[in-house]
Structure prediction request, 123 residues.
Amino acid sequence: MIALIWIVFTVLALLWTGLAAFSVNVADWVVNFLASNQLGDAAADLTGIPLPAWLTPWIDPALLEALKVSSVEFVQAAMTWMPSADALSGGIGWLIWTIWGIGFMVMLMLTAVLHWFVSRAKS
Prediction:
């Protein structure tokens, strides 16, 4: 039973570590995408998308146009005050690995307590 407890811990720890590494890579990709100003170009392209005819009875075209224009303005304004990609990427990576460490320690403590309970029950 004790071996099973540690095997489950090992599998969960590997999955937890993989999730953290994946999250850091995704966060880096998102930050670099935002820093490359491709988001501003994509938001500007939104204004050219027409409203489908079947949606016209439910959505006012003037309201949709105002939403498109305001979203483009918001993205362009956000691009001016966004911090540098390196600083933001490093901060997000640090935060993810800190959460990983806390989660890993909680799993380790729970596994140790479970190990202790099972070993006490056997004797």
Q: What stands out?
A: The two ends are 14 Å apart (CA to CA). Residues 85-122 form the longest helix (38 residues).
